[in-house]
Amino acid sequence: MNTQEVANKWQQMCQSGKNLECIQELYADNVVSKEMPGVPHGEVVSGKKEVFEKSKQWLEDVVEFHSSEISNPVIANNHFSSKMSFDVTFKSRGRQQMEEVCVFEVQDGKIVNEQFFYSM
């Protein structure tokens, strides 16, 4: 898959609530995930299994998604970005509105880097 195809599949899977399946299908074994400083599950996580576990922990903390929106991906060579907005109630911290910009790098049809920029 090229970058556009990976981006479209990523968006489709995330909008369908298949976030963990997305990691299994679209992420490289050596993927690196970067979060904003101070996040409880680690600012930098390396490896597909570790990124999967980080995402699983985040999802397990969710009580309810009140709303969510994922923009169409913007492609630039082997990178794509998307804006995500959520209104979520968490077990650990209550209800929050979140906006984030996600940036992904694709190599050989797999996501090799992801980085999230957000406010809460």
Give a written overview of the molecule.
The model has no long low-confidence stretch (mean pLDDT 94). Strands 1, 2, 3, 4, 5, 6 and 7 form a 7-stranded mixed β-sheet that branches. The protein starts with a helix and ends with a strand. The chain has 120 residues and is an alpha+beta fold. It is built from 3 helices and 7 strands. It has a single domain, classed as Nuclear Transport Factor 2, Chain: A (Roll), CATH 3.10.450. Pfam families: SnoaL_5. It comes from Polaribacter porphyrae. This is SnoaL-like domain-containing protein.
Short description:
This protein is an alpha+beta fold and 120 residues long. 28% of the residues lie in helices and 49% in strands.
Distance between the termini: 34 Å
Q: Could you say which structural class the secondary elements and strand pairing correspond to?
A: alpha+beta
SSE order, one letter for each helix or strand: HHEEHEEEEE
Number of domain modules: 1
Q: What portion of the residues fall into strands of 2 or more residues?
A: over 45%
CATH class descriptor name? Alpha Beta
Q: So what's the overall shape? A: globular
Low-confidence segments, given as residue ranges, are: none
Largest sheet: 7 strands, mixed
Q: At CATH's second level, what is the architecture? A: Roll
- Round the Cα radius of gyration to an integer and report it: 14 Å
- CATH topology descriptor: Nuclear Transport Factor 2, Chain: A
Say how many strands there are: 7
User: Averaging pLDDT over every residue, what do you get?
Assistant: 94
Helix percent band: 25-40%
Number of helices: 3
InterPro entries: NTF2-like_dom_sf, SnoaL_5
Protein name: SnoaL-like domain-containing protein
Pfam families: SnoaL_5
Domain SnoaL-like: 1-118
